[in-house]
Amino acid sequence: MVSRQPSKPYQPDGIHESVEPFDAPNAPVKNRMDEPVRGPKLGPFEFLRFAWRLLTSMRTAIVLLVLVAVAAIPGSIVPQRLADPNGVSNLKASDPNLYNIYESLQLFDVFTSVWFSAIYVLLFISLIGCILPRIRHHWTVLRSAPAETPRTWTRLPFRDKTALVGSVDESLDRAAAVLRSARYRVVRDGNTIRAEFGYLRETGNLTFHIALVGILATLAFAGGFSWHGQRALIEGQSFTNQLSSYDTFNKGRWFADSQMSPYAVGLTKFTPKYVKDETKGTWMPIDFTADMTVTENGTTEAKTLKVNQPLHVGGSEIYLLGNGFAPIITVRNPAGEIVFSQPVPFISQDANLTSVGVVKVPDGLAEQVGMQGFFYPSAVKLDSGALSSDNPEPTKPTVTFNIYKGDLGLDDGSSGNVFQLPIDKLTQLAGRHTGKTVVLEPGDTFAIPEGLGTVEFTGLTRYVGLEIRHDATQLGVGLSAAFLVAGLLASLATRRRRVWVRVSGTGASRSLEWGAQSRGDDPGLDAAVGRLLTKFSGTGSPDKIGRT
Amino acid sequence: MSDLATISLIATYSAMAVYTFAFVLFTVDLAGRTATDGESKPTRWLRSAMALTWLGWIIHFAADIMRGIAAHRVPWANMFEFGLTATLALVGVYLGVSLFRDVRFVGSFITGFAILALGIVATNFYVAVTPLPPALQDYWLVIHVFVAVLGTGFFATGAALSSAQLFQSRREAGKLNGRNWRFLTAFPHAESLEALAYRLNVIGFVFWTFTVIAGAIWAEHAWGRYWGWDTKEVWSFVIWVLFAGYIHARATRGWRGNPAAILNLIGFAAVVFNFTIVNLFFKGLHVYSGL
Ligand code: HEM
To answer: Is residue B101 in contact with ligand 1, taking CB distance under 6 Å?
Structure first.
C-alpha cells in the first residue's frame, strides 16, 4: 500500500459541512471550495473558472435536476409525436392556432426540443465536471494510507478510552487486529493507529454517476444504429425483412440497409380469446396468440407470438402490438371479371371490434371507385336502425359500405394514408344518406350503381399489427442500469468511517484512546465503534471477531 | 369467487373503521399532552392507538390477500387494488419503522392518510374482479407494481416526517407558539425528524429506481420499447429526478433542513398526482384504472 496522503481533497462546491471536512481532517476548515464565489472584476480566465465552478456546484445540480423534472411535465400534457401521433394530428385539425403555438415551442417533441436538451446537456456537463475530479481524488485515496490523526481530537464525535490489554505494543497490535477483522484499512504509526472503512461508499456513488453518463452516451451513439418498422400481416401472408416491406419505418442516423437480416415472417393463424365481464356486460380479451412461421437461412420454423413474448429473429425483435379483422372483398367489372380481390385490414374502434377500413379500386372499372367500410363481427340492429357489434367474435360478421366514385388522388403521390378517402372530392353512389344501403354478409354481393360493377364480401380473415425493432441501445442501457443500481445500493448501504487509536497517559495510568468520525449522518457510529471496543477488551481472539 | 371479493371489501371497510378509532386516539393523545416546557409525555391513549393500528393493519392485510385469491392473481392490477395494496404497504412501513424507532407521534398523519386513501379508492374506484388483458399478463408487472407500492409506502412515511419537521423547525425558531402548537413538543427535534425522513426516502428512492427499471423491462416486452415517454413514464421520471434532487439537497449547504423537506413534499405530491390525476385524466398506454 502506498503511504501517501491525497494532496488536494476535492469536493464539489457547496457540499454541506457535515460531509465536507471529512477528507481532510487537518485541512483548514476553509478549503478551496469554501472560498466565497466572487462575481465582479474577473479577467476572462477567472470568469471561465468562476462559471465552471458555478456549473459544477452542488447547488446548480439541484436546480438543474428540478428544472429537468419541471421541463418534462409538458411532455405528459401535450400529445407527443413519438408516443401519440394521432393526438397531434387531432389537435392540428381541431385547433390550428394552438397547434401552431405548440409547434413553435416544440411542445410536441418535448424530449428532443432545444430547451429540454439544453437543460439535460448542462446537467450532464455539470455531472461530468463534478465526477472527474472526484474520480481522480478517490483513486488517490484508494491507494493511500488512512488519514492522519486529527489535531482537534476533542472535535471527534466519538471518543472513548479502554485499559491496555497486555503491554502497549500488544494492545496496539490487538486494536489493529480488531479493526482489520472489521475490514478497516489499518496503519500503525508508532504509538498511533489510523484506520478507515467504507471506501465502497464513494466507489458506489461514482459508479452510479458514471452509469448515468453511460445511459446518456448509449442513447446518443447506439441510438443511431436502431431501426423499427410496423407491418400489418394478414393470415396466410408473409413478408421479407427489408425496408420496402414495412408500412412505416424509422431509422437511426447511422442505419444501413445491410443491417437488416433477410428473414421472412408469415402469419398462419391468429387466435384471440375473450371473456365476458358479467358485471359490465362487456367483453375483455384475455389472450392473443399468433401462430407464425419464421424463415431464416433457408429453414422454416413454426413459432408462437404473444403479447408479452416477442420473437427474437436475426438480431431484431418482433412484437405483437395489434390485431383486427381483414374482410376479403372482391370487386368485379360488369363483365364479371375480377378487378380487385384481397383481404383488407380494418382498424377496430371499440371493445367489440366494430372496425373501419377503406377499399380503393383505381383500375379496372369505368371510373375509380372508393369504398368506406364498416365491419361488425356480431352485427345487431339498434333501435335507431344503425348497426352495432355486441361481441368481438365473428358470430354474425357484416360489412357495410359507403361507395364513392371520382379521382382517388393516387396518382399525385400524396396517397399516403391507406385508411383515408378524399371524400369531399368524390361523388357518393351508395351507402348512408343515399337510400341505397350496402349491408353484406359473407357471400353477399351488391351491384354498384351506374352499372360500374359489383362488390362482394367474400370471406373473413384476421391480421396482426407487428412491430419489428432492432434497438441498439438495449445492451448499453441495460448494463448501465445494472451498474447504476449496484452503485446506488453499495453507496447507500456503506458508511465511511475513520477510527484512530492512540496511547495516552504515562506509567501505570496509561490507556488507549479511541476516536472516530463518519462522513455525513451516521447515527450508528457510537454503537459500531463501541462494539469494536467491547471486542478489544473482551477475551476472544481479535481475529475471530466478526465484523461490525 | 365474487363472494371472497365481497368479504374482502367488507374487511376493507372494517380496517378503515379500526384505523379511524386509532386516528381519533392518536389525535386525543397529541391534544392531551400537557407539557408546559420541554418534552411532553405520551398519554395512555397512545398504546391503544398503536394496538388499534396493528389490528386494522391485520384486517387490511386479510382484505388484500382475499382480493388476490378472488382474482387468482396479485392484487394490484387496477386502481382500487393498487390503492388497497399501497395503503397496506404505507401502514406496514410505518409499523415496521415503529419497531425500531419511536415514530408514534406521526400516527395521526399515517392513519389519517390511510383512511382517506382507502375511502377514496373503495368508494370511487371499486371494480369487480376481472381478468387481466394480455398486456398486463407479465411477471414484470408483478415486480414493477410491487416495488412501486413499497416505494410509495416509504415515500409517504418520509413525507409525513418531513411535514412534521417543517412545523417543528418553525416552532424551534420561535415562530409557532400558543396552545394549538403545544402538541409539537411531543415530536423529536427537527434535525432528528429530518434524518429519519431522509433514510426512509432513500429506501423509497431505491425502490422507485427498481420500479422504473422493472417498468422499462415490462414495457419492452409489451410494447416493443423500454422507454417511450408515455405519460406514466414521464411522471415516473419526474418523481425519480425530484427525489434525486432531494437527496442532493440533503448534502448541500443552504439546502439542508427546510428546503430539502419542501423538495421532499413536492416529490411526494408528484407521487400522489401520478397515481390519481395521471391515471384518471391523462391519456396513455397505462390505462389500467379499470373504470
Ligand atoms: C443526472 C443527474 C444526477 C442524478 C440523477 C444524481 C443522483 C444522485 C443520487 C441518487 C445520489 C445518492 C446516491 C449515492 O450516493 O450513490 C447522489 C449523490 C451525490 N451526487 Fe449526484 N446526481 C446527479 C448529478 C450530480 C452532479 C451534477 C453532482 C455534482 C455537482 C453530483 C454530486 C453528488 C454528490 C457529491 C453526492 C453524494 C452526496 C452524499 O454523500 O450524500 N451529482 N446523486
So the answer is: no
The candidate with the shortest Cα–Cα distance to A361, out of A341, A390, A383, is A341
Using CA atoms, how far apart are residues B49 and B33, in angstroms rounded to an integer?
Answer: 15
Q: Chain A: residue nearest B128 by CA?
A: A279
Residues 6+ apart with CB under 8 A from B282: A76, A77, B231, B232
Please measure the distance between the N-terminal and C-terminal CA atoms of chain A and give it in whole angstroms. 24
Atom of ligand 1 nearest to the CA of A11: 35
Whether A268 and A461 have beta carbons less than 8 Å apart is answered as no
Of B198, B235, B251, the CB nearest to A15: B251
Which residues lie below 8 Å from residue B158, measured CB to CB, with a gap of 6+?
A: B197, B198, B200, B201, B204, B264, B268
Q: Which residue has the cell 380469446?
A: A273
Q: What is the pLDDT along chain B (291 residues), one digit of tens a residue?
A: 457 888 888 889 899 989 988 988 888 887 766 544 445 566 778 889 999 999 999 999 999 999 888 888 878 878 888 889 989 999 999 999 889 888 888 888 889 889 988 888 887 778 777 766 666 666 777 788 888 988 998 999 999 999 999 998 988 887 777 767 777 777 888 888 998 899 899 999 999 999 999 889 888 887 778 898 888 899 999 999 999 999 999 888 888 889 999 999 999 999 999 887 776 666 554 444 444
The grid coordinates of residue A194 equal 489510523
Distance A209 CA to ligand 1 centre (A): 7
Nearest alpha carbon, ligand 1 atom 7: B244
Name the grid cell of B85: 395494496
Min Cα distance B204 → chain A (Å) is: 12
From ligand 1's centre to the CA of B274, what distance in Å? 24
Give B258's contacts (C-beta < 8 A, 6+ positions apart): B165, B166, B169
Q: Whose CA is nearest to atom 34 of ligand 1?
A: B248
Closest Cα to atom 15 of ligand 1? A205
Q: Which atom of ligand 1 is nearest to the CA of A56?
A: 30
Ligand 1 pocket: which of A134, A205, A480, A492 to mutate (most atoms <8 Å of CB)?
A205
SS3 content of chain B, % helix, strand, coil (to 5): 75, 0, 25
Residues of B in contact with A288 (CB under 8 A): 134
The pTM assigned to this predicted structure is 0.80
